[in-house]
Write a structure and sequence with these properties.
117 residues; alpha+beta; four-stranded antiparallel sheet; 2 helices
Length: 117
């Protein structure tokens, strides 16, 4: 099993989740609201003649726990769907091995399971 985490701009959250489901059939995801910046280092706004700098931009952290067999397909779907066409700031994706993944309700292991309820 692998935990895939993806930081995406908020406007792309639904698009990314739909793309992962369409590409792999995987439907489980956790969405966490986040703020941050990469190379773009925030943005500058002008409001009523005053200039404001926002160092951190609104983002979302998507967390998927998936079988090893679909990791590459999930990451490819995320990267493709998260691309906004902006020069920078679309986010990052990465995978980390996880073990002992258990359903709280049933106490059953997800290891080797390809579909989740």
């Amino acid at each position: 099993m692998q935990k895939i985490e993806a930081v995406v701009i908020r406007e792309r959250v639904e698009t990314v989740i739909d793309a992962v489901e369409d590409a792999t059939g995987h439907v489980g995801v956790t969405v966490i609201e986040a703020i941050g910046h990469g190379r773009e280092r925030g943005v500058t706004h002008e409001y009523r003649g005053r200039v404001f700098e926002s160092r951190f931009l609104p983002k979302a952290l998507l967390v998927f726990v998936v079988p090893d067999a679909i990791v590459d397909d999930v990451i490819a779907a995320i990267v493709d769907a998260a691309r906004s066409g902006n020069e920078s700031g679309d986010g990052l994706s990465w995978a980390t091995p996880v073990s002992d993944v258990m359903h709280h309700r049933t106490g059953t292991s997800l290891e080797g399971v390809t579909s989740h309820d």
